[in-house]
Amino acid sequence: MIVQTGSGGTGAVVTFLTHIAFFDYGGRAYYFLKVANEGAEPVQLNRIWFATDPEVSVRNPQRPLPTRLDPGDLFETWKLVEELPHDPRLPYLARLLLDDRSVIESLPNLDVLPAGSVGGAGNPLRPLIPSVAAENRRDGNLVEKEWDVFISYAHEDGDVAASLAGALRDLGLRTWFDKFVLRVGDNLAFKLAEAIDRSAFSIVILSRAFFESGWGKYEITGALNRSVAGDQVVLPIWHGITEEEARAYNPSLAGVVALDTVKASVQKMASEIHEVVTEARRLAT
């Protein structure tokens, strides 16, 4: 819901949306509650709760309240579904209290794809844009990263990785791909850790060969750690594997929006990734 609040006709414009998702594929479901300040003034968020009977407060030590949102900032918190009473109206029952005592009512976020959905048709990656923007922004400012995207892959999948890296680079994205960057004598572990840290977005080409790769596990662990810390978004690309195989390898990876080389060409995937990164950068600036 979009609400104007404040005085003098120049109040803040706030959106408050909810959706259900999972941190781990097949795991416990959470209600995610996302607040965006789309106006020209700062706003303070004081409290979030569900107006159920009885009322249920949303208290998340990882997302403490009160907090201030500058123009363009996003705030997201979550609550276990099992801790809420069963009510089909829940997406509409979340409430947000602002500093001026305005109470904002939630609406369901219809732009978010269900966890585990596979892209490759239309623009399935667009729901990632706000997350990429938020996770590359600190204290109202864009966090400059050396690389737009980091590509992780197994040696056996080098052809598809090279094609994707070339397509992304041709579209103007600063692409970390080992064949572009690494030189003889480089410390591989150090260079990989540095690249993951300095990239805004990680792409992981998941295949059976990747599952067997020691370096693949090293790279994906680093990317996921950064994602948990709020500095990275990980985009899996399924390459010749099934959903069940991805889920068995790493539930956290299988539980997010993904692309599939069977369903989308390299150029199509590159175009969608380019849109996410460039739009997120624009929003974060």
TrEMBL record:
UniProt cross-references to Pfam families, sorted A to Z: TIR_2
GO BP terms: signal transduction
InterPro entries for this protein: TIR_dom, Toll_tir_struct_dom_sf
Residue ranges constituting the TIR domain according to the UniProt record: 145-277
Gene3D superfamilies cross-referenced by the UniProt entry: Toll/interleukin-1 receptor homology (TIR) domain (3.40.50.10140)
Matches recorded under PROSITE patterns: TIR (PS50104)
Protein name: TIR domain-containing protein
